[in-house]
């Protein structure tokens, strides 16, 4: 069944930036963008790079290794060399806590 898990405090994520966290053995990238929190898998679908080491701009995360970009809301791969979307997770803010839905 679905599980909401506390992953971090809201103020641990800088505005319009990304951090990496480990949740139940998964590497997750957590974004704060325009006041909202989004989450994707942290490992790029193209290679061994962490999206949390990349650059967030206009709602897209740019991978640090080959500059592929994903939409942080849909996980959609937006350009070459990406061929696979990245998994997204539903998030919720409860007071000062960020929760993630792990299916
Ligand atoms: Fe991310 Fe190549 S590893 S674009």
Quick structural summary:
The chain is an all-beta fold. The protein is 0% helix and 48% strand.
Describe this entry's structure for a reader.
With 103 residues, this protein is an all-beta fold. The chain has a single domain (3-102), classed as Rieske [2Fe-2S] iron-sulphur domain (Rieske Iron-sulfur Protein, 3-layer Sandwich), CATH 2.102.10.10. 0% of the residues lie in helices and 48% in strands. The chain is built from no helices and ten strands. The strands form three sheets. A four-stranded antiparallel β-sheet has the order 2-3-4-8, with no helix packed on it. It has a three-stranded antiparallel β-sheet with strand order 1-10-9, with no helix packed on it. Strands 5-6-7 form a three-stranded antiparallel β-sheet, with no helix packed on it. Strand 6 and strand 7 form a beta hairpin. The chain is globular. The model has no long low-confidence stretch (mean pLDDT 96). Bound molecules: FE2/S2 (inorganic) cluster (FES). Residues 44, 46-47, 49, 63, 65-66, 68, 81-82 line the site of FE2/S2 (inorganic) cluster. FE2/S2 (inorganic) cluster (FES) is lined by residues 44, 46-47, 49, 63, 65-66, 68, 81-82.
* Largest sheet, strands/sense/barrel: 4 strands, antiparallel
Contiguous runs where pLDDT drops below 50 for at least 5 residues: none
State Rg: 13 Å
CATH fold group: Rieske Iron-sulfur Protein
Count up the domains: 1
Could you name the CATH homologous superfamily?
Rieske [2Fe-2S] iron-sulphur domain
Beta percentage is over 45%
Major β-sheet strand ordering: 2-3-4-8
Which CATH C-level class is it?
Mainly Beta
Helix count from the secondary structure assignment? 0
State the secondary-structure class: mainly beta
The run of helices and strands is: EEEEEEEEEE
CATH architecture name: 3-layer Sandwich
Catalogue the ligands: FE2/S2 (inorganic) cluster
Helix content: under 10%
């Amino acid at each position: 069944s679905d599980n909401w898990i506390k992953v971090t405090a809201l103020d641990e994520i800088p505005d319009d930036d990304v951090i990496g966290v480990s949740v139940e053995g998964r590497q997750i990238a957590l974004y704060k963008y325009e006041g909202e929190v989004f989450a994707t898998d942290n490992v790029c679908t193209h290679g061994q790079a962490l999206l949390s080491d990349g650059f967030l701009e206009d709602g897209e995360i740019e991978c640090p290794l080959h500059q592929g970009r994903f939409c942080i809301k849909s996980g959609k791969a937006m350009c070459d060399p990406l061929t696979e979307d990245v998994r997204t997770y539903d998030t919720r803010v409860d007071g000062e806590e960020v929760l993630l839905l792990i299916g």
